[in-house]
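Progress narrative, work stream C.
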Amino acid sequence: MPLVVPGINSSLGDKSEWVNKLMGKKISDSTRDETTFAKTDLPKSHRIVKSGDMLTTDHDPNRLTVHTGDDGTVQNVTYG
């Protein structure tokens, strides 16, 4: 199995870039402001999962996964 290193093997860039953009913000359909990030600005290959959601086990190193809390605030950002 090949080694996958976000930012090197991924076409999405460095994970820290997305962490800086998203952490602590809420995801909205189209609103953009200091506390909200628009879904339309996320990469084409992404998924938003809430705490406790079931996830598929397929691994896609080019998919951004945005983990949110029950209130919709971004708590973590990963690739896969």
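Work stream C, second folded protein:
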Amino acid sequence: MGASRSLQRSSPMRLLIALIGLLLFLWWMIQPPSTSSSSSALNINLPDISSATPTAALHPPKKAPPILHITMNNLSATAHPLRNQERLLILTPLARFYDEYWQNLLKLDYPRHLIELGFIVPKTHGGNTAIAGLQEALRRVQNGSKKHRFSKVTILRQDFDTPIGQTERERHALKAQKDRRAAMARARNSLLFTTLDPGIAWVLWLDSDIVESPPSLFQDLAMHNKPVIVPNCFQRYRENGAWKERPYDFNSWQDSETAQNLGRTMKEDDILLEGYAELPTYRALMAYQRDEKGDKHTEMLLDGVGGTALLVKAEIHRDGAMFPTFPFYHLIETEGFAKMVRRLGHQPYGLPNYLVYHYNE
């Protein structure tokens, strides 16, 4: 009876089953855990860092990106930009898209492979319309022959609201100027800081309502080789069936003792503005210095500048000259920019006899 139980306990079938069970157990023990179970455990135990760490930092590229070496001392902005193949950045705050502006831009005769464009569009219904018109115009050019394409185009959408309406009357009301000009300065700075790369030699600020200028606008301004220079901005209009023209931009001026004394009596956050009877500054406005028979390259020193067609050597912006969004010596936006340029040791200039024309609403 005892021998029979011993034979049952050690039968070949039971030994085989036990061996297979042992091998399965050992196989299970030595297998690595599955990816899904591992990830689940890590996600439970580790803090969520996705909001604090850029995705690129968590997933390094398989191939290291190139390292650029740029010698800024070799960058030139001279009186002969075409000869030296100097790159131009044209920047436009775009509240409305005028086809006349675009056609005028296309007529500029500087080689397009040396031109980059930058636009910033407000978060408004009008901005939606403007960006649609701009994109369609760009599509036709950038999908055309390589010779006619611009080197680079950047379109920004503002991340802040426009404080006032966009009709001409609303834009030019005195009570709206501080908020309006501050928002314009903010938009200009956003556009500038985003698009100014190390290879740019010149920056041309060209408003979206400049609809007529000489095709050689950039070269004509650059030939003066000034750190900051601005032409005179006029406007064509019809009166009694005849075309006439009148000064439009009053932000380019030479300062006056009257204006300086007025500034001394103002509160710290007040701003001085031109073209308003409530603020008689008696400055010498470039708009009224035009000599119809005079040389179009006649220069005048300026203390304030407008931004309708403003050429700046890129090194001036890199020095720190930006558009104040706050009262800077009682000046703001482009006029504050001119003041900042002078505080940095540079001199703005104007060309009273050289005209560009503003859209007539």
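The longest strand covers residues 228-239. No further action is required on this item.
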